[in-house]
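Sequence in, structure out. Go.
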Amino acid sequence: MRSLLLIAGLLSASLASAAEVFTYGPAQKVGEGYKFTEGPAWHPQEKAFYFSDIPSNNIQRWTAEGGSKLFVDRKSRSNGIVVDPQGRLIFCEIDKRAIVRRDKDGTETILAESCDGQKLNAPNDLWLAPNGDIYFTLPKLRPSKAKKDAIPENVLNGTLCRIPPTVSR
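Output:
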């Protein structure tokens, strides 16, 4: 009976800590001077926060110690970012119309340029599932009056896509 009570006590204590309620103070500015920020991602190994500044064509890296610094200059306007378990950045590339992975050494690999055989339009946000699947969104875009041919007809619009993982050892 004692062991059953001990197990019940430990279980309730762990559930109580899992249900901890946070209270928050007022928001504090930690960076400024950006044009249009998107795609925030936390890198737990580096204790760094990555985000895109789309019109500036770059990805910024922010740490509590060093503040915000240019991480990489992107000519293809990156958007949503995630960090995989190996510490690599995976992000949406608007102008390349692709999902790209960047290794720690700077090597980049295109993970997807199409979904179900159709070209991507302008990948927006993405999420890395616990099983390794990468889900990403393609917004519904409308051509501007100035650029009637800006969005080809054979691209996906307003779509959710998935990239299943391949296992490598």
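Check: The CA atoms of residues 27 and 103 lie 33 Å apart. Residues 2-18 form the longest helix (17 residues).
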